[in-house]
Specification:
This protein is α/β, with parallel strands linked by helices and 439 residues long. It has 14 helices and 19 strands.
Length: 439
């Protein structure tokens, strides 16, 4: 079992799906910087594309995503029209530079749109950009998974699917506003396998209202039985001031910090015990899955989609709130679908904010990513010196070892990885409260 040091987890820290994080983005970094970054993409550089569908047919109480109800067909239609126009605009700027190797659809729920619209989107992306047999992945809500969608996954050749499971316990599902019987998940998995999907990810959660260790054991066991190739075990972040829909969650039933820690540790032990390779601090993958191979080979990366085997340094996001990442720039589109569509209708790229990365920020980003992905990193003397007072607190508990320019996390330091990485964050003063708990 991991050692528990509550004081070391008290400080809220980001999930570091980028560095600097989106909280640092500024309105004065926008379209001109984005266009400049597109212009700098080398002709044959691998490109990753992300498409955000900010709609769901059923809204869950715990949700912290940028999504709304998909109950008005004209709203969906005009959003899809705007997406198409944005794809064309970006492709126009690129003029054939870059080769698309990945296309990811997330949300929201991509299967909130009609299968035919999904086919049209894939077709548009692969014809407007230069593409080389891209790996296509899609997030799926099993509650609204129709047979026509399964047939479409096969036709399009989708290789990877991520399924929002969260928990297999009925009572917990009701407590978080996401009822979906076990049989529904099992049916979806069978459907994905029949459709030729090679890698199925389950998103699971701990820290849910009323959740017990037994619930974690049950959900982990069912995930293994159903043959999940990958599992992401996230801690529920209760931030009702930021996400008003979370006010429907009974906050009095939320596990305390000590129980959350035990739940995360139990999940880790069970998946590793079942033969899964630990990937970063909260993902697991079966040996042979591309994510496990990347973790073992030291090529694991972290981007806005979490831990990934995607090695591309150029990620272009489409749709409301989508983030694009380049070596020296991060930019985000308008967060809400309304202003996003208005920008497109006016013939403008919908970029709203961002941040540039100079060589100092790139060095910090590299150390943070390496610590989270590989558990070790090298830092230059100046950077290490600045981080040292904060790092020493973890070193005193033998959670991190520092020798010369080398920083290495101890095997049992995984739950502290984000907190240790935060020691290299130049934007994060101690005591800041903008983020969720470290565990
Ligand atoms: S399906 Fe996912 S994105 Fe949609 S409301 Fe539920 S948690 Fe949020």
């Amino acid at each position: 079992m991991w050692p528990y040091h509550p004081a070391l987890l008290e400080r809220p820290v980001p999930r570091y799906t980028s560095y600097p994080t989106a909280a640092e983005f500024r309105a004065d970094v926008g379209t001109p910087a984005f266009v400049e970054a597109l212009d700098a993409i080398p002709a044959r550089a691998p490109l990753s594309l992300y498409v955000h569908i900010p709609y769901c047919h059923e809204i869950c109480s715990y949700c912290g995503c940028n999504t709304g109800r998909a109950n008005r067909s004209h709203r969906l239609a005009s959003y899809l029209e705007a997406l198409g126009a944005e794809i064309d605009m970006v492709a126009g700027h690129l003029s054939g530079r870059g080769v698309v190797s990945r296309i990811a659809f997330g949300g929201g729920s991509p299967n909130a749109i009609a299968p035919l619209d999904f086919v049209r989107l894939v077709d548009r992306l692969t014809t407007r950009f230069r593409a080389s047999a891209p790996v296509i992945s899609v997030e799926i809500d099993p509650r609204t998974l129709e047979r026509s969608w399964l047939a479409t996954l096969r036709t399009v050749g989708v290789q990877r699917v991520s399924l929002g499971v969260q928990t297999f316990d009925d009572a917990l599902q009701h407590a978080i506003g996401r009822p979906q019987p076990d049989s529904m998940i099992a049916r979806a998995v069978d459907g994905f396998r029949d459709a030729g999907v090679a890698s199925i990810n389950f998103d699971l959660m701990y820290g849910l209202p009323g959740q017990t260790i037994t619930d974690i054991e049950h959900s982990a066991a069912r995930s293994v039985e159903l043959g999940a190739d990958r599992v992401a075990l996230f801690g529920y972040a209760h931030l009702p001031a930021m996400f008003p829909r979370q006010r429907r969650i009974d906050a009095t039933a939320l596990p305390d910090a000590a129980l959350r820690f035990r739940q995360a540790a139990t999940g880790h032990e069970l998946f590793v015990g079942a033969g899964y390779v630990p990937v970063g601090f909260d993902h697991f993958a079966r040996p042979g899955d591309a994510l496990a191979i990347a973790a073992c080979a030291g090529t694991l990366r972290r981007n806005f989609q979490g831990f990934t085997d995607d090695g591309s340094r150029h990620l272009i996001g489409f749709g409301a709130s989508a983030i694009s990442e380049f070596p020296t720039l991060l930019v985000q589109n308008e967060k809400n679908a309304g202003p996003y569509r208005e920008a497109i209708v006016a013939g403008r790229l919908p970029v709203a904010r961002g941040i540039g990365r100079d060589r100092h920020e790139i060095a910090r980003a590299r150390v943070i990513e390496q610590l989270l992905c590989a558990g070790r990193a090298r830092a230059d003397r100046q950077l290490l010196q600045a981080a040292r007072p904060a790092l020493d607190i973890f070193a005193q508990e033998n959670l991190v070892h520092i020798a010369d320019d080398h920083i290495e996390l101890a095997a049992e330091a995984l739950p502290y990885a984000r907190s240790i990485a935060a020691c290299f964050d130049g934007h994060r003063p101690l005591g800041e409260k903008r983020f969720s708990n470290a565990i």
